Fold each of these.
Amino acid sequence: MNIIVCVKQIPDPEAPPASFKIDPATNKVAPPPNIPPVISPFDEQAVEAALRIKDAGGAKITIISLGVNLLRDVVKKPLSMGADELILLEDPAFADGDSWATAYALAMAIKKVGAYDLILCGRQAADWDSGQVGSCIAEILGLPQITVAKKLEVRDGKVKVERVTADGYDVIEAGLPAVVTVSNELGTARYATIKGIMAAKRKEPIVWKPSDIGVETAKIGAAGRRVKMQKLFQPVREGKCEVITGENEEDAAANLAKKLAEVKLL
Amino acid sequence: MTDNKGVMIFTEVVDGKLAPIARELLGCGRKLAGELKEELSALLIGSGVAGVAAEATAYGADKVYVVDNELLKDYRTDAFVGVIEKVARQANPRILLLGQTSTGNDLAPRAAFRLGTAVTLDCVALEIDASSKLLLQTKPVYGGNARAIFTMDTLPQMATVRAKAMSALTPDSARKGEVVTVDAGLDAATIKTNLLQKVVQEVEGVKLEDASVIVSGGRGIGGPEGFKELEELAKLFKGAVGASRPPCDNGWVPTSIQIGLTGKVVSPEVYIAVAISGSSQHLAGCSGSKNIIAINRDAEANIFKEARFGVVGDWKKIIPAFQAKAKELLGK
Ligand SMILES: Cc1cc2nc3c(=O)[nH]c(=O)nc-3n(C[C@H](O)[C@H](O)[C@H](O)COP(=O)(O)OP(=O)(O)OC[C@H]3O[C@@H](n4cnc5c(N)ncnc54)[C@H](O)[C@@H]3O)c2cc1C
């Protein structure tokens, strides 16, 4: 059983909203100082899903991460959780792609890896929230896709997935190889163990450049974008909250009820 | 590909009727089509959906493409992608819109790339650029901290649209529209996934999406018992209970009541956020509420920036006192 998990390094999505800034000169997000980047949380859950399959019946887990300025401590986290290999597509030419350009490079890297039964991605990266890379990889490789998974089970050459829907979930099955994208309903990802961290320290990632995976440079990164960004801005918040007070909390609460009655919201 | 014309809406059907998002999309599509002086069409895919065509017309469609086939009874990616590809190649729309739903966000990327174009998911505003005539697609990014406006030169320009971001027209049953039946032309062998079971987790009482009052709890509620109190309060207002993500992740409440970027989008008259900090990802699901009321012990919590009224303090003291007073004022 060979599992490939695609993970992305992103600015911490849980950083306080007030620390979020756009650099008007570059029209790019300025990463908050002093808050280190993280693996996108859904991708971490995809790693967790792979590890659960490995725990249940054994598997080799290969992590692929595409980007620039990839901090080794950050991108090695899946290794310290228990993944086996780490491949980095690290080159400026890969940067600033849209979902399609990114998925194309990832799919070509996956082809080069060669052996894969299951490809896992997070349901969306928590920076651009695009939510398409998994589907695009499936389309390029001609594989079945199941998105927004909360549970995966591999048996008899098939993957059975519980897919989250608006009012419950669907149980869907596909033959392997297949692409599955993972959602937070899967459950929290495990912590790295000390042993895992030590092993990850010793392990050097494999770095592939565009020429290593035979991609056309016009189709990757910023050059390969079909979706063009015209503008990036922060919506203005009005922030006119009327704080209701009282002699104590109970009194304030009663005053809130009175206020709501007054403005006909009760 | 200058012969691409018109706006097409993939109109989802729920319980034999147009889904609310489909009506909203038709309302938005009508406007876009008007600006382009082109036609608005609806695309109905399913089994036994032909009867819904009249509803699509009433909500604004000039033409309704109907693809009715047994194999399309339930949503399966490969089948629906195949049908969208077929109809889009036949009708050549300039713009193709879907809902940001569990179907739409699975279907749209794959259909887009099959058609050689691209898609922007989860848009909250769509406009036609006056000079280029391109579709300007506004999408919240970075968990709602920012918004980006995207365009694409490939056709059809595709987007999915967030629930409640657009308004439906008042249906007009006198409107006339054309119905075009398209053969699905499906080969069962190309459908690579199998739907084994559909599990619906029924929620008692008022549905979140329909509630005019929502009492929503966050991590600070601390456990399932606290949500019982919120339920009582919601009952008093004939409303529904929602939650931020941590209570769902912790199993205190069903995941189907999560509100936010990756949960439900709601826009009630009153949204009472109890012990919720107001992360951008949570606000993505509730900032359309007419009135947000925040109850939080941290006066600096971000939720107060979105709220109309707020009380700073411990919800365990505030909620019972608020409920007692509200009951009294309501004469119950
Ligand atoms: C990609 C992505 C998608 C996400 N999608 C969603 C989503 O759809 N929905 C969502 O909600 N989150 C989502 N999140 C998570 C989000 O970032 C926040 O972590 C989450 O919303 C925080 O929930 P909270 O406000 O309940 O918890 P916290 O941020 O921990 O806030 C708890 C609040 O409770 C207050 N409090 C504690 N005790 C009391 C008390 N006794 N009385 C009064 N107040 C008290 C505290 O002051 C604090 O403000 C997403 C995150 C990512 C990265």
Amino acid sequence: MSALREALDAGRFVVTGEIAPPLGTDLTAMRTSVETFAPVCDAVNVTDNQGATLHLSSLAASRVVLEMGVEPIFQQTCRDRNRLALQSDLLAAWTLGLRNLLVVTGDDPRGGDHPEAKGVFDLDSTQLAQVAAGFNDGHDMKDRPLKGATDFFIGAAMFPEAEPWDVQRARIEEKIAAGVRFFQTQAVFDPDNLVRAVEVAHAHGAKVIAGILILRSERAIRFINERLAGLMVPEHVASRIIGAEDQVRAAVELAIEQAMWMREIADGVHIMPLGLDAAVPEIVREAGLR
Amino acid sequence: MIVTRPRDWALVRAQLADLHAKRVFIMGCGQCATVTETGGEKEVLAAKARLEQEGVEVTGWSIGEVACHASGQRLEVRKHFGEFSSADAVLVLACGAGVQTTADVTDKPVTPGLDSLFLGTVVRHGVFEERCQMCGECVLDRTAGICPVTTCPKGLLNGPCGGMWNGMCEVLRDRECVHVRIRERLAAQGRAVSAVPLPPKDHSKKLKPGSIDMRAGRKKSRHGGA
Ligand code: SF4
Ligand code: SF4
């Protein structure tokens, strides 16, 4: 059973971190990140060729995280695999001991490091959630019984800040109907936006882990606004970091504040450190989450 | 409308050189390539003038009424029998189907003068947008007449994806997100903004290669319909 699910079900406020597997086979840096997060996180997301750039597979890296005694959240994107490969990797994930699954669409290859690649998108994230829910019920996409079912804790992404909200709300409801039990959000800067998202999810019994991006520098903010599709850092937030003498400090303080108000609204926080892993334990502790 | 674009002229010349073509017949198309101004009379005559200027003899030219119509093209070849016979190669200014249809009805080597891009709409003169990938199982009944297979850059049946921002697409940022448009049009028409996601596409419905006999279709077609 997923410890993340247990914690959320018990009403404990959870903390999740995020690591990107290496481009290569040297796991040293990845292990260091995991060790940094371990004392303060309930689980760690392991990204799947994030930003459509090549990395070691999430499947293998998630298993490494598990062997280190930390619970991974295995991310699976729809971009790189057709439904045969997705299903077979889901079975692999379960047999490797991975209990948490985050289904995401995936960024378009045109924005990644292999822009010539074919974006597969044979399934979309809602359909993939349905497939995983079917696996939990013991059958594959063709309704054939599995020899041994899964019991994934199925999660999906959501974007509380994005308009139009009716469309986003419908998406949340559709994903929950498809079998999603928890959401991890993109970065949220406005508490009201988090409130509206949590209301929808809670009305249908799903949990929300709110996203915090550590905006470590002006460069990082510009990168996010330009490259990470759709994620716009509001002016008043950006200027607070950009105007600071010590931008890293300002970013950490901002993250602590965010974690504190998120605690009043959501079921957990998901910290995306943008390389500033070392700050994660401080943020968690200063916000009083551990 | 099949939208085509002229190939680079140097490439066309290299293709003809590969065929050792000193005498060339040029075939255009009276349908799509005429509308897209890539293989109509004007473009065929321009290609003729250019070839002649560069020392290639043009034995003749014609605009197939529908270059992708086998019996029509057979007739065209017959009409221009002498001009075909004396040519070393045929340059076809039509879509890939038009090129192949022409190649099927003559013994002469045939070479394409255009690249075929997509099946689309003439948004206005000279501006074309892809609208259908001919997936074999249309979902337009559920999507307010907007095709997500074709017009969402990721081809997602259900969306928007996580990168949509203020109604705009994360991949092509100067365009509206197709899934927002679909839901808004459904809502404007008072139709349910569906809570039932579209099921995964049945890719076996897109025949590869496509082939259908409509006459046999009255009995049973290979396209799945009866
Ligand atoms: S759903 Fe398929 S057939 Fe219908 S418009 Fe789109 S690609 Fe064409
Ligand atoms: S933003 Fe909308 S149109 Fe663009 S890729 Fe995502 S779902 Fe498709």
Amino acid sequence: MSKLINQSSKLRMSKKLIYSLLIAAFCISAIGCRYDMQDQPRYKPFKESDFFSDEKAMRDLPENTVARGNLRENKAFYTGKKENADPNVQVETTMDEDGNTVVSSFPNAIEEFPIPVTKELLDRGEQRYKIFCMVCHGPVGAGDGMIVRRGYPKPSTYHNDRLRNAPVGHFYDVITNGWGKMNGYASQIPVADRWAIVAYIRALQISQDPNSKMTMDKSSTDSAGNTDNKDNADNAETEKDSDKAESSENKDADGGEK
Amino acid sequence: MAQLFHRGANNIAKASLVIAVLLAGVAFYAYTQLARSSYLTGRYLEKQQPVQFSHKHHVGDDGIDCRYCHTSVETSASAGIPPTQTCMNCHNQLYADQEYLEPVRASYRDNKPIKWERVHDLPGYAYFNHSIHVAKGVGCSTCHGQIDNMPAVYQENTLQMEWCLSCHRQPEDFIRPKSEIYNMQWKDSNLTAEQRLKLKADYKIRSKELLTSCSTCHR
């Protein structure tokens, strides 16, 4: 009898030991877990991958595929080219004394904006122009931006007859695919923003040309559109006076409104 | 039996209680300081990068906007690190044959991304999103400090939970007009208290309770 009791208490003892060992093991493994929670086995943007051969966790689109909603049927909007554009068309290309590419005829480029030109579009264009283009092309497009002053080749001014007469589709094409020494900005600027920038460049051109007969957009030259241009013209004029990239940066966002 | 302790031992025993409490206090204080130290939070530490990229030169001296390189900061959770192509927009012509840009050119040639060392890195269980902060008037310099003065980026704040909460409890102390988000010189004293409260209302910033509830950041 006494032997039996002794055994069961021994059993209880060893059970206790096992439990406490289990708890201790759990506590120790819980310490280890903390690290796993910090660095969870999932991909965050820009992380390195040891699975894919190009070591990028962020995947590029496979070639010749179209993501949902990216069919881009609207040719004028997405390419700035006419519906019946001829890819083999020959245009005369020369170089000016700065080594910039000069082309004067653009048979394929569309002449009219594919989206309505509004005050909002111009404001957006102004903002985007100052982020992406001003560093080289300068605050009013004279080609005197900060990077050019640091030694980058000088682009031609927007304010010559050649570029005043260039169709809007050409500007869109330059932003999208680059031009001569200038790289394309397709990866940095979404399509709608590119058109906004083109609209703002047109507004700059009008503002810098005192006897301009240009209008923003043949399809939207209603009274509202015209006053918009005027507002922006005044705006650009004040910028020219200050003539400094830095000062225009600190300018109030809606300084164009009178 | 002879007495083991002499009478003074009573005082020592009492004193040791006080000392123990004091020691525990000091240890706790040391722990809190250690937890907030730059050794554990990575604050102020500069990292060795594959290319000596300088925000001081590119932003401070050349006036390039943050969004030229960090293009997705307004639209997504991650601000984005520029692809090599962005560097080549300028460096295909500028310093195109300098030794220190060789890693950039090599990356462009071989189509292999540059391996930048992360400076800011939240743990996996915390959720952060840039676009909402930018949209609700929190400027880059509030969280990242004067990037335009940093030859090498370092973490200006601890990025600990207490830091996030210190703002989420009263965001009105830190917000600014939308036009100043990218202004690195902005001072929080540029606005009066009423202007801040009005801004807070304009941005429709939600209640302190919602912003500090655990599931906002741990989801």
